[in-house]
Amino acid sequence: MTNTSALWYFESVNLYRILCPHKVKRMSESHQFITYKRDQFIYMTDETATHIYMIVSGRVRVGHYLENGEVVITAILTQGEIFGELAMAGEDKRRDFAQAMEAATICPLTTSQLKELMYDNKELSFKILKLIGLRIMKLERKLELLVFKDARTRIVEFLKDTAAWKGVKVGFETMIPTKLTHKDIASLTGTSRQTVTTILNDMKEKNMINFNRKQILIRDLDQLA
Question: What is the pLDDT of residue 218?
């Protein structure tokens, strides 16, 4: 079993604070943010991979298409998170797409700019390498859950992972601030929206969790099943 708390630690680091060229004097004058409308693509499959991107505001979904045209969502990201980082790992053409889920402001960074920043900052280099490794581990974990676990287990494990990533402890309870809808959770767990709604409502009735549009409250993370 993956050590979840260690797995999510580096993802929770807000790299925007140290990566954005606006924060580096020699780069700030030539750097511009880009604003995307809801459902607008930031990049699409097969485009040349030249940038990584940081989210200043809004939410972004990352996914790919199966041969039958079905869409698989691999990540839903929010303020302070980065995507498109495989450009740093030798990706020439995008294997996935990134799409704004709502009005979003994005900070683009060329691979050359990132290399320059990493050259000057060993700690940043370490975090970037960890981030890329983390994304690979997450995809492997998701594949394992999709192949070997039923829908309820996938949703429970998703809640545990998200709690380890973004959860705030309040006594024995864990509060997860999130804008994820049931449809979003279904996309991330390979289930249907109806299944997510049924399972979450069942857990709510058993007083294992409570939720609204802004947060999910887990009563006792150790007892979540």
Answer: 94
The owner of tokens 């839903």 is: 76
| 82 & 163 share domain | no
Distance CA 164, CA 157 (A): 11
CA distance linking residue 146 with residue 224, whole number of Å: 19
In a shared domain, residues 165 and 111: no
Q: In whole angstroms, what is the distance from residue 222 CA to residue 225 CA?
A: 8
Contacts of 189 (CB under 8 A, 6+ apart): 145, 151, 154, 155, 158, 196
Measured between alpha carbons, how far is 114 from 52 in angstroms, rounded to an integer?
A: 8
Q: Are residues 125 and 212 in the same domain?
A: no
* 193 and 136 share one domain: no
1-31 pLDDT, tens digit each: 333 333 333 344 456 555 655 555 556 566 7
Domains of the chain: total: 2
Alpha-helix residue ranges (DSSP H) falling in 39-173: 111-120, 122-148, 151-166
Please report the pLDDT score of residue 219 as a whole number. Answer: 94
128, 50: one domain: yes
pLDDT of residue 15: 60
Name the residue among 126, 123, 188, 136 with its Cα closest to residue 161.
188
Does the model's pTM come out above 0.85? no
Look up the domain containing 165 and give its range: 150-223
Weakly modelled stretches of the chain, pLDDT under 50: 1-13
